[in-house]
C-alpha cells in the first residue's frame, strides 16, 4: 500500500505541475501580442538567446557535419554509392539533426540563462515589485524572452545545418575524394521544399517548448540560490525530454 500511495502522490504531483504549466503557457500566449509593442525588448532577447549562442552552434554544426561525412562515406562505400553522400547528409541535417541538436544546445545554453535570469529576479523580489507597481511581469519580462526564443531557434537551426553541410563537404570531397559536382547536384536534386519546411516546423515547435519551459521554471523558481539552481536543472532535463518526444510526434505527423 505504501508503494501504491507513493505512486498516486507522484501522479497527482505530475498532473498538478502539468496543469500549472498549461495555465501559465495560456497566460503567456494571451499577453504575447501586447509584447510586440516593445519591439526593442524582443530584439534584445533575440540577441541574447540567438547571437550569443552562435559560437557553440557553429562549432557543433561543423563537427557534426564532419562526423556525418565520415560515417556516411563509410556506409555508402559498402554499397558503391558514395556519390549520394550529399543527399544523405543534407536530408539528415535539415530534417532531423539540425533542429534536434540545435534545440538541445539551445536548452543547455539559452534556456538555462533565461531560467536563471528570471529566477534571480524572483529571488530579489523584482517581479513582486513590478506587480506592486501594476506592471504585469509576465508581459514585461516573460513574453519578450518567449518570443525571442521562438524566433531565434529556427535561425540557429538553419545556421547549424548550413555549417554541417559544409563540414560534410569538407570531409567527403576534400579528404575522401567524392566528386564535388555529384555531392552538390544530387543534394539539390533530391531535396524538396517540403524537407525544408519540415525542418522549419520542427525548430519552431522546439523553440516554443524550450522557451516556455525555461520561462515557466524561472518564474516559479523558489526565491533561494538552491531553488534557482534546481529550476535551471529542471529546464535542461524537461526541455531535452520534450524535444525528443516532440521530434517523434512531429516526424510521424509530417511523414
Q: In whole angstroms, how far apart are the ends? A: 45 Å
Mean pLDDT: 89
User: Helicity range of the residues?
Assistant: over 70%
The coarse silhouette is elongated
Rg, Å, rounded: 21 Å
User: What's the count of strands?
Assistant: 0
Q: What's the domain count?
A: 1
Element order: H for helix, E for strand:
HHHHHHHHH
Structural class: mainly alpha
Mind explaining what this structure looks like?
The chain has 255 residues and is an all-alpha fold. It has one domain. The protein has helices at residues 2-35, 39-49, 54-78, 85-123, 126-132, 137-175, 180-190, 193-219, 225-254. α8 runs antiparallel to α9. The protein starts with a helix and ends with a helix. The mean pLDDT is 89.
Topology:
Blueprint: H1 2-35, H2 39-49, H3 54-78, H4 85-123, H5 126-132, H6 137-175, H7 180-190, H8 193-219, H9 225-254
Can you tag this structure with a few keywords?
255 residues; mainly alpha; elongated
Summarize the structure.
With 255 residues, this protein is mainly α.
Amino acid at each position: 500500500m505504501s508503494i501504491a500511495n507513493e505512486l498516486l502522490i507522484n501522479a497527482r504531483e505530475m498532473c498538478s505541475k502539468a496543469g500549472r504549466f498549461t495555465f501559465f503557457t495560456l497566460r503567456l500566449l494571451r499577453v504575447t501580442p501586447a509584447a510586440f509593442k516593445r519591439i526593442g525588448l524582443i530584439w534584445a532577447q533575440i540577441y541574447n538567446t540567438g547571437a550569443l549562442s552562435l559560437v557553440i552552434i557553429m562549432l557543433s554544426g561543423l563537427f557534426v557535419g564532419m562526423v556525418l561525412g565520415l560515417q556516411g562515406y563509410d556506409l555508402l562505400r559498402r554499397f558503391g554509392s558514395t556519390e549520394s553522400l550529399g543527399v544523405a547528409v543534407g536530408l539528415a541535417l535539415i530534417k532531423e539533426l539540425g533542429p534536434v541538436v540545435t534545440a538541445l544546445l539551445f536548452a543547455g545554453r539559452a534556456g538555462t540563462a533565461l531560467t536563471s535570469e528570471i529566477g534571480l529576479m524572483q529571488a530579489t523580489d523584482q517581479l513582486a515589485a513590478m506587480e506592486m507597481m501594476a506592471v504585469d511581469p509576465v508581459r514585461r519580462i516573460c513574453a519578450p524572452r518567449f518570443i525571442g526564443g521562438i524566433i531565434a531557434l529556427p535561425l540557429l537551426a538553419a545556421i547549424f545545418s548550413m555549417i554541417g553541410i559544409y563540414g560534410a563537404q569538407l570531409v567527403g570531397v576534400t579528404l575522401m575524394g567524392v566528386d564535388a559536382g555529384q555531392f552538390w547536384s544530387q543534394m539539390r536534386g533530391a531535396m524538396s521544399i517540403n524537407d525544408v519546411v519540415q525542418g522549419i516546423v520542427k525548430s519552431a515547435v522546439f523553440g516554443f517548448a524550450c522557451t516556455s519551459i525555461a520561462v515557466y521554471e524561472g518564474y516559479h523558481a523558489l526565491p533561494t540560490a538552491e531553488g534557482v539552481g534546481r529550476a535551471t536543472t529542471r529546464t535542461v532535463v524537461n526541455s531535452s525530454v520534450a524535444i525528443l518526444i516532440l521530434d517523434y510526434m512531429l516526424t510521424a505527423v509530417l511523414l
